[in-house]
Structure formats: structure tokens, C-alpha cells
Amino acid sequence: MLTLIGSLAIVSLTFHCLADENLADERLANENHKSIKIQFVTEDLPPLQIDAANQPPSGALIELVNLIIEDSGIDAKISIFPWARSYELAIKKPNTFIFSMLRSEEREAKFIWLGKLFTIQSYFAALRSNANIHLDSIEQAKQYAVGAIRHDLAENYLLNKGFTHKKNLYVSNKYPALWNQLFTGKTDLVFTNSIIWRHEIMKASFDPDEVELVYEINDFASDLYLAANLATDKAIIEKVKNSFEVIKADGRYQQIMTKWQLTPPHS
Q1: Number of H helices and number of E strands within the chain?
Q2: What is the CA angle 266-190-158, rounded to 5?
Q3: Environment class of 12 (CB within 10 Å of its CB; exposed 0-12, middle 13-18, buried 19+)
Q4: Rg of the chain (C-alpha set)
């Protein structure tokens, strides 16, 4: 009997030791993940992402990403840069997430894609005063000077359609410069989308009522995604992805979109 009791005690002690070891391993893993420098990068893209002077970033997708960070329990921050800078960081730095990024065949293998954030529709915009502009096709737009953001998917799209830098394609690093070119007559058209154009124009200190969307670009990628650098820690990827899926499933995603008067994308 004493031998049996001793054996049971040893089994019990071994079980508790293993449990303690597993708990310690889990705590160590969480501590290691918290010690990893994790960054979410994006651009100023009202009302999705808003870079307000002397204030924390705001906007519908800023709120969503902050919620993902909180729910997933990771130690991370959001930084807003010009798009070209954010894209470069996401390509080169492990444990870097990027949003809101259009997904394309050219970008597919360069990132880990975690989920669709929102859907937009793309357009060419022109000044209402420029009544001579009439477009029925992308090909017709080549006779005009078109503005786009540097390293944005729109730039690649236009180049693939046969546009040429400094001939009929003029790129800017920031949106105020993009719209300034249109309002000062340096470009005739701006590549934009249905959600952000009015906000961008107002932020550039121009009147959006002086601009109209003149041509819908139907064959351009329109889904905005959350993506990550290819070398990002797999456990962090899973935490972020799972958190995002839960937030979409439990209604909090819908609440954020409703608050910002945005129509969520179709599933």
C-alpha cells in the first residue's frame, strides 16, 4: 500500500511539474512576443486613417486595428507615413503589418495577407471647370496628364496600361501635393476612389465641390487588406488574424463602420 501511495504521489508531482513547465513556457512565449518590436504602418487616408496634428491617429480602420492590437494582446503601435515609406517598411522589416493595401497579383507573393478590411471603387477625378474632358475608356485618358501616388498600386496600373512618367503620368509622395497639381493645372486628372477624395481635397485646403468623378475604373483592384511582412513571427500572425476574425464575427467591425458612416464590404 505504501508503495502504491508513493507511486501516486510521484505521478501527481510529475503532472504538476509538467503543468507548471507548460505554464512557464506559455508565459515565456507571451513575454517573448511582447519583447518583439511589432509595428502597424499606414498612410493618411481619411476617413479610414486620419493623421491629425498633435493628436493620436484616428479613423475607421485606425479604430479597427487598435481593437485588433488590444484583443490579440500584442505590444504594438500604429505609425502613419507617406505610402511609399510604409510600403518600404512592410517589405523590409519583419513583424511589420501594413494597411489599407490593395491586393494585386504583383503584390501577392510579397506579403502575408490576413484579411479584407474594406472595399472601394476607383475613379478618375477632374475639375468641373475643365469641361473639355470626356472619357469613355482608359485609353482616352492617355491624352491627359494624370496624377497618382508614388508606389501606389494605381501607379503600376497606369504604367501597365501604357502611361509614361512625366509624359502623361505624374506621381506625388503625398495627397496634398497630388491635389495641388490638379488645382494648379499641372495635371488634368487624378486617380482616386469613392471614399477618400473629398476628405483629401479638404485637407489640401481646396474645395471638393470644384471636382467631379468623371470615369469609373472597373478593372482596378478595389479590396483593401491588412497584410504583413513575410518574415513576421507566425504566432503573432495567428494572434492578429484570429482577433480580426472574432471582431468581424461578433459585430464590433460593423459598429465601427456604422460610426464612421461607411458601408462594409461584402463577405
Answers
A1: 9, 10
A2: 75
A3: exposed
A4: 24
Q: What span, in angstroms and rounded, lies between the C-alpha atoms of 44 and 90? A: 16
At residue 82, what is the residue type?
A: P
User: Three cell numbers at 161?
Assistant: 496600361
**Prior bond of 56 cis (ω within 30°):** no
Place of cell 509624359: 167
* Residue-wise DSSP of 198-231: HHHHHHTTS-GGGEEEEEEETTS--EEEEEEETT
Q: Which of 219, 222, 193, 12 is nearest to 117 (CA)?
A: 222
d(CA 14, CA 11): 5
pTM of the model: 0.72
The Cα 154–Cα 255 span in angstroms is 30
Q: From the first residue on, what is the mean pLDDT of each consecutive set of 10 residues in the chain (267 residues)?
A: 46 46 46 71 92 88 98 96 94 97 92 95 96 94 97 93 98 95 98 90 95 95 94 98 97 95 63
State the residue for C-alpha cell 463602420. Answer: 257
